[in-house]
Amino acid sequence: MTTIIANWKMNGSHSTTEALLEGLSPVLRAAPSGCEVVLCPPFTLLDSVGRHLRGTKVWVGAQNCHQAREGAYTGEISPYMLAESGVTHVLIGHSERREYAGEDDALIAQKLQASHKAGLKTVLCVGETLAEREAGQVHAVVERQLKAVNATHFASYVAYEPVWAIGTGKTPTEIDIASMHQHIKSQTGGIIPVLYGGSVKAENASTILAIPAVAGALVGGASLDIDSFSQILHAAYQINNA
Ligand code: PEP
Q1: Among the atoms of ligand 1, which is closest to the Cα of residue 165?
Q2: Model-level pTM greater than 0.90?
Q3: In 3D, which of 230, 223, 226, 234 has the Cα closest to residue 91?
């Protein structure tokens, strides 16, 4: 199984989404059964994207959720609300949430557990900053991020996303990706699919997806471009057929 998850971040209006989904329609409808495709739009577009995707095998995911089931948490959305709205997947612990929303391991652990309990497929994002990489702490950081949230029990997927590779056009070497993915697998019992994220684009998708232990990709910027995302999906479909 190859999994491709699109993270639209805080992008998209109803009209741009309509155009994007129209343009992607042929490739989304061609998804083979061994390939799982998930689109994660902002909350405001979950419903319309879900309606648009009806009749396809493409799933809808959210980019975040609150850890409580319900209550006095103004402005928040619970994993149960997401599940009730037809959302199947949720990103947890994305580095932009760790950085801009101050999410720490303790909070991410709560969100991961709550989402798992609500029946969502959880995508736990982990990865080191450039400073941590330069300090030789890559393995230690990722191990801490996995252990602190009990990933082995509550993560449906782990997305390895080196922070310095997100939105920068930079990627680790193939050897580095292979060794980190192996390491994450060994830390999580070998059964959780490990996706790679960080500047995946049309030009590098085939190479990255062919790396052993890479079970798919989490795609940010390139998932908003019809041509780029179509090519990434075609690369995934081919790997899957190989
Ligand atoms: C992401 O947002 O998870 C991501 C990987 O972004 P990009 O593909 O733009 O680097």
Answers
A1: 10
A2: yes
A3: 223
